[in-house]
Recover the amino acids of this structure.
């Protein structure tokens, strides 16, 4: 319960930072400008935190829903393991994408 509240507050702050940063780049920002913004160490670390906290918060919330609404223990266990797997994979994809941009990997 407590972790879900803490991650919710963190997501509000990280989401506000992300939206404000993109707004400062402007609505018509070119791809190169966004890449340059994400290559700055501060932006990269904040984006990594956003990805990680989002995945963790999603896992916490969905776990509660699945525990409440799946009555069969075996099915619930399979669904919870699948949930964690999917969210870990999604978080890894997000982290790798940010790191690839931050370290300047070519497409």
């Amino acid at each position: 319960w407590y972790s879900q509240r803490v991650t919710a507050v963190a997501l509000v702050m990280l989401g506000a930072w992300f939206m404000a940063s993109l707004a400062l780049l402007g609505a018509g920002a070119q791809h190169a400008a966004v890449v340059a913004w994400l290559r700055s160490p501060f932006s990269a670390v904040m984006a990594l935190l956003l990805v990680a906290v989002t995945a963790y918060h999603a896992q916490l919330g969905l776990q509660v829903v699945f525990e409440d609404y799946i009555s069969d223990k075996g099915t619930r266990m399979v669904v919870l393991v699948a949930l964690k797997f999917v969210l870990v994979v999604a978080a890894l994809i997000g982290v790798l994408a940010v790191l690839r941009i931050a370290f300047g990997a070519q497409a």
Notes: The chain is about 85% helix and 0% strand. Helices lie at 2-25, 31-39, 41-69, 73-102.
